[in-house]
Amino acid sequence: MTRWLVGGIAALPGVLAGLITGASGVATLVAGRPLILAPAPTSLAEAARYADAAEVALRVSLGEDVNRATRVRIPGERSLILTPLEAAAASGRNYMVTLVLDSGARLDDQTLRRLRCLVERDHVRGGMKDYLSTLDPSPLSCDGVPLPE
């Protein structure tokens, strides 16, 4: 009996580590961001994609260009070249789009159409489609709109 108890106690850290790692994997699949070992954002666009408001604010205060497209790593998927505004829309978080816009990102008709088509193609959740429709309620046509691959 004592051997089983000691063995169980000795195995507990490994079991807990496995459960936490598994939960982090599920979080990556569901929310697009792992709970542990999340990649540190390497750009303003990547910080916006991961909805890291503090990192976005820091990078803007350090002078990073809010309109410059950079590579954004997405766990379990391929990297994309996105502007911070596109990455914010892909995050599915309305406040992140607002933060990037308030930080000086350009939003003209062509950019808004591209955002709406990107959100539509990637089936972004969180009400982003509705949020962008409030900025431009016209019917959406994505014919000829270049989207990141």
Give keywords.
149 residues, mainly alpha, Serine Threonine Protein Phosphatase 5, Tetratricopeptide repeat, 2 domains, two-stranded antiparallel sheet, elongated
CATH homologous superfamily of the largest domain - what is it? Ankyrin repeat-containing domain
Poorly predicted tracts of residues:
none
Largest sheet: 2 strands, antiparallel
What count of structural domains? 2
Average pLDDT level: 85
Q: Between the first and last Cα atoms, what is the distance in angstroms?
A: 59 Å
**Overall number of strands:** 2
Q: What kind of oligomer do you see?
A: single chain
Order of helices and strands: HHHEEHHHH
The CATH first-level class of the largest domain comes to Mainly Alpha
Rg value? 20 Å
Please give the structural blueprint:
Layout (H helix, E strand, L loop, with lengths): L1 H30 L12 H6 L3 H9 L8 E3 L7 E3 L1 H8 L2 H9 L6 H13 L6 H8 L14
Antiparallel strand pairs: 1-2
Helix pairs in contact: 4-5, 4-6, 6-7
Structure description:
With 149 residues, the protein is mainly alpha-helical. The chain has 2 domains: 1-38, no CATH class; 44-135, Ankyrin repeat-containing domain (Serine Threonine Protein Phosphatase 5, Tetratricopeptide repeat, Alpha Horseshoe). It has 7 helices and 2 strands, in the order αααββαααα. The protein has a two-stranded antiparallel ribbon with strand order 1-2. α6 (109-121) runs antiparallel to α7. The protein starts with a helix and ends in a 14-residue tail after the last helix.
